[in-house]
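Private note to self, pasted from the team thread so I don't lose it. Backbone tokens:
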């Protein structure tokens, strides 16, 4: 079971993630939107420019969320490893996402992805990572934190298996989900995007 200190650290990271989503929308400027606009796409939205700004803002927020979530999961992994008595290997883990010594004495070098589909085009890269770990006498694991499908390949861990590895318990994944269960009511992606789209439309109209 996660201790209170770990819970607070993890919850803080998720709250910062939600704050970052709003910030990413607000940082999108009218100049940036217009400079990157494609004639065909712009024409398709020509009858409702606000929808176009909504579309572009939604793209920005979605991309920002995916990037930031990956970074948050890496930080949470560090918290969980240390909470179960593991040790993070000092120095940058490149080209891996995390290197740590498990309480069982084994050193793991892991890649952290959202879903298995992200890795279909990187089979050669994954093979090279496995070989690097093997040569160093370490264990390579490719972890999909948002994918519950089990793989026949031993080095691939689905969501539950990943959370168990870094958290030391089969219940770790469920504990993390329970911890953040109330956050959904604190933020509306739609309202964030809609609000910024309206602001961009207003700026656009004033500039005509």
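Design output:
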């Amino acid at each position: 079971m996660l201790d209170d200190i770990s819970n607070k650290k993890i919850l803080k990271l998720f709250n910062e993630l939600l704050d970052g989503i709003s910030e990413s929308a607000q940082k999108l400027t009218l100049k940036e939107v217009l400079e990157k606009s494609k004639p065909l796409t712009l024409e398709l939205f020509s009858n409702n420019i606000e929808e176009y700004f909504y579309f572009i803002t939604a793209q920005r927020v979605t991309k920002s969320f995916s990037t930031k979530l990956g970074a948050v999961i890496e930080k949470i992994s560090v918290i969980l490893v240390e909470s179960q008595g593991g040790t993070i290997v000092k120095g940058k883990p490149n080209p891996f996402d995390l290197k740590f010594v498990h309480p069982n004495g084994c050193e793991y070098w892991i890649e952290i992805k959202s879903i298995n589909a992200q890795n279909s085009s990187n089979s050669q890269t994954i093979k090279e990572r496995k070989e690097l770990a093997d040569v160093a006498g370490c264990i390579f694991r490719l972890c999909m934190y948002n994918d519950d499908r089990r793989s026949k390949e031993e080095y691939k861990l689905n969501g539950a298996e990943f959370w168990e590895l870094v958290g030391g318990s089969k219940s770790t994944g469920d504990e993390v989900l329970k911890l953040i269960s109330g956050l959904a009511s604190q933020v509306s992606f739609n309202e964030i995007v809609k609000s910024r789209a309206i602001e961009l439309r207003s700026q656009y109209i004033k500039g005509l």
